[in-house]
Amino acid sequence: MAQEFAVIGKKGMIDNQTGRIVTGKLDFAADHLPGKKLFGRIKCSPHPHAKILSMDISKAQALPGVKAIANWENCDVLTDMGVEAYDTGTTLRSLMPQEITWWGQAVAIVVATEPNIAEQAIDLLEIEYEELNYVIDPDDAQKSSSPLVGCWEGSNVRENPGPVVRGDIEAGKAIADKKATLSADWSNYFQSSNIEPRVTLAWWDGDHVHVRLPTPGAFNSRSVIWGFLDNEVPLSHIHVVSHGTGMIVGDKINPYLECAAAVRLSRMLKGAPVCMNYSRREFFLNTQHQHPATATIEMGLKNDGTITYMEGAFYGQCGGEGSAWASDLKFPIVNTIKCPNVHIKTFDVATNIPWTGIYRSVQNPPGDYCMEVILDKAAELVGMTPYEFRMKNYTWPQDPQQDNGKPFSSQAVRQNLETVATAINYSNKWHEPDAKTLDDGSKHGIGIAGCVESHSAMGGSIGAIINMTKDGKALTNHGLTRVGCGTNATCNAIVAEILGLQYEDVITGDWGNTDVASDAQPQWGSMGTITNGAAWLKAAEDVRDQLFDRAAAALSVAKQNLSIGEGKVYVTGDKATYKTVRELCAQAPQLIGKGYSWAQNLQRDLHGFKKGTPAETRCTCASATEVAVDTETGEVELLKICNSIDCGRIINLDGVTKQLYAGMDSIAAQALYWEQIVDGVYGGVLNPNFLDHRWPTSLDIDRETVFEPLPIETDDAVGPLGAKGIGEPVITTYGSVVCAVYNAIGKWITPPITAAKVLKALGKA
Amino acid sequence: MKDITFINATSLDQAASLLGQDKAAIFAGGTDLMGLLRGYVTPSNPDVLVNIKTIPDMDYIKEDGGMLKIGALAKLADVAKNSIVKSKYAALAEAARKVASPELRNMGTIGGNLCQQVRCWYYRSEYNGYNCLRKSPSGLCQALLGRADHHSIFGAGDGCIAVNPSDVAPALIALDAKIVTTERTIEAEDFFTSEGEKTTVLEKGEIVKEIQVPAFNGKSAFMKFAERKAIEFALVNCAVAVKDGNARICLNAVGPVPRREEGCEAEIAGKTINAANAEAAANKLSKTTVVDTSKYKIPIAKALIKRTLLLCA
Amino acid sequence: MSEEKKKTSRTLSRREFIRDAGIVVGGTAVGSSFILAACKPKEVEVTKTVTSTTTAPGTTSTVTHTTTLPGGTETKTETVTKFVCPVCGEEFDSLAALQAHFNSVHGGGGDAQHVLRKLIVNGDDYWLKIDDNWTLSYVLREKLGFVGLKNGCDRGECGTCAVLLNGKAVFSCMMLAIDVEGQEITTIEGLSSGIDFSPVQQAFIDHNAVQCGFCVPGYIMCATALLKENPQATLQDIKEGLSGHICPCGNVKRMVEAVEMVKGGF
Hints:
heterotrimer, A: alpha+beta, 9-stranded mixed beta sheet, 21 helices, 29 strands, 24% strand, B: alpha+beta, 5-stranded antiparallel beta sheet, 14 strands, 27% helix, 21% strand, globular
């Protein structure tokens, strides 16, 4: 990029909470009020589909230390005077219903003085269930003979509105040299398994409620809590502080049962602090999972590899809760492939498994996986390498979003793919499937994947306030929570750049605190940097403008002749004539800057579209992976992962690098290990724990040689200083590992690619 | 976790007497029992935990009277790092080193590793999730029709197809060790069983005191195959000890008890250990009795036998 | 007079004793013989013979004081009942005093809940009531406020609860607090004052090696013990040493690099 920056893009933007983290002082939700809080535990349903007929809580109630028991009907609070019974209320009832639709769903909550006592009380609940028919297999669920899951009337399948329809399928068929129906099998069902389980600590004083929870959006959570309280208290009486967050990748986006229970039960307990800290088991069973996806696409191909039409459907599993989520499964294929004739639908399929919902890059990883498998199969049909075939058919930067004609503010999937292909030396390493054996006898494979995916948009208009201190430094209070990918640091860096300050001169005072900051765009969908960065940029420009006013007066020059840098406001071209930012800030009144993010419109002319045109800001990424498959044991070893994401503008280089590493680490997990195993015979979840739903350890990958992060910059036409979100590096590595394994052994294996599956595919088991 | 009473034992006699009672459980490192208790796994919970770590002089590792003697309370980490064990009884050092994770090896004892309960996910489902036949005579084995990914390829033990998960057991068997208890001395190979909820032949109140390994001047090796390179229980593990042209080959995590593969031993006996011979030996793996979801373990078992033999070449 | 003070401080009156113990015994100040001796002119011998019988409760002794006076020998006999603690042998003058001692120190009637136990954390002694079924992580976090360690899984499968026990890394969620009475526990709070950082902590800062931070205290504790035992740890040693920990933010690479940076400088 031609532009030169003083702060932007440099390494070492260490956010000022790092010292607290390494000393264990960063406060996570459950760290508050040690010894002074009550603990909640959940009774998890032992049936995949059942109706609760009755619940005898007398033995549980009699246990000393039990303070409250809640189920779909009643919340019974135990006081010195006896039992106070409350109606559970619509909110909690909707989150803890009488009809259970998955094994492990919450059936009751017990609050007690100790977790041990709550657990003992759970064990003493006597519950009568009417067991109902259930279905676990998604293909069975689609048959007319299937039992109903219980979340929808009449059918377990639901078509999403808004299929993508463009061009003329028949015209595409007419010009095709080949037609093929290509499909990808069901991808894996798993959970992102955040290291900190869902948790909410709540206590009341008067009609004010204090809430501590991990969330990507403190203000969004406040609004949800307002709803949990049936809007009975003003928003400003809900005090949310979210300082430490133990991994936020979408699954903790919205507070759920744990929060509703904490705030409501605490109020019933006369304000006593209630900590609903899910156990790891409760978390696996009561938090969103990733939708497994499958796709079948009929494709027309010319001999030169051009795709002439695509017609078909994606299916996503939505679990027992029935939130429809499949519609964006088609986003990658529809926007990554330049094909004029498209008719693609999406369907949700319900089964009696724990609910699927929001997770990292929601819907795009399984959607991309389906696309990558289908593209590789198509490439084989026309005798092209997967790389060549993709470059033949990928959209270009100037191509608008396919379903609405809006320009992309940056779109670099070709550049991403080329970057990883070059880095991994694809042209020399690619070979036919099942064609290369390494010296140690294992099979070598190489895979490549790339996509335009749906995240990283500019969010709603939010504001930022900068308080300049009298010694010329900037104090920022972030509405953003601290997720760990460095968004707060990024926003501070933008402020520093605009104000000509050092990065260390912009200090985060507080963050994630609804009492102190102004609203922020939650850090989901990779909207954090782009939206909040825009607001902080505007606020910094406001400060700069006021500094220029003061300097112009002091130096008797026109405002437009001033520049800022290195802690000074100086006359452009005459650095010797200046006022320091410090002395300008020392003047009364205090210098305060305010700014709002802007709408998602082009900030400059681009690809023939005028400045001000409504645009789409999306993420593009690509991955190339090399593997070695041990054909005796089925073990897959990662030899190399090159992972590229378009950052627009790299502001926080450490943050970007860490995100790319995270993408590679998560992918090893997604593609090779993760599976929430629901036993089709008994309907139960067999592995709600970290032992059998596994993360790679420090020994499992030679990260020092395998990981190669390759961020690129495209100067996005919407984002602040050209930056956009970089939180989605997980997507394409998922597909590239699957394709690499195919290239190694000539067999398609659905993730997770376990030794068992590899050996079975090789005919050895 | 339910209410329990924690008693620090002062002697083996006292511990044995306390453990002879109903509802008492032995507590050393506790890394297995804690999982069972915290998860309300079985309906029968002990009321009393008898802590034997307070019994003095039970964690030694020494050479004495022509054999290696290890006190039952020796930590797995100490066994793994001990210079005598590493240099002369390599299979044992490697096995101890591969158990679980470093922290759990600092807590867990060699005796405990031998006595641990099975890991079948139906058995271990918390809050007694499944009425499996291991826990109750009226129960049934869910793994037979369900997911048996981690289970036996050599049939059932008393109806149960869960495997013995110990990493140390096959190493001790390959090294021809003996287990000394408060009542008797047993060959390591005869120490294990699968009857009801039992994984060892220990009677009620009987405690492992010491492990004795005869002096070994051959080559030994241990390999573990699991979904990850740490934390995991083995899908298959294999220990080999070769001396004077004879091999002892022991597999575990593939059957209800660890098992010597005598057919493989016979095949390699007296032969140079090279790739071809090792493969031929591995192919003598005994006949398997296996459900579909465990079949993949068979080629892995063969691969491990071959590779572990080659480490002893 | 000093004689009366001592009496009252050493014994109960007969009436009080009978009221409390329900047993007819008598007692006088054992020290009376010394006082007598102090008032005596020189060349006085005092001898005391004791014969004891044990009745339940308490041990009754008959004490004979023989005093040799210039004018002859005086003998006094007294019966003294002592109540001796069966656990530690300390003596008390009344059953009530013995019961109070037993309850506070040894736990009366098998109820161990009243016993105060000592945990040594970061070099300081903490006396507290510990239920037998409380895990070490629960006690450290909720009873002593050491919330730096975290509870990611409560089953020893994630590493976030790691602390040092006698210098070795262990999972506090898998230990019972009562089991580590009197042993040395180190938590993340004990590694530094928070103004100066330990070498491992400083390396994590310098290398910007944290993301959300939840797993970091566990990694740092483990790395600290690892490097203490093996200051020249290789990359492979470090990877193996940290292999009991997971980092779902995917930050393992940076943390391993940070630990590598400390090598030698520990």
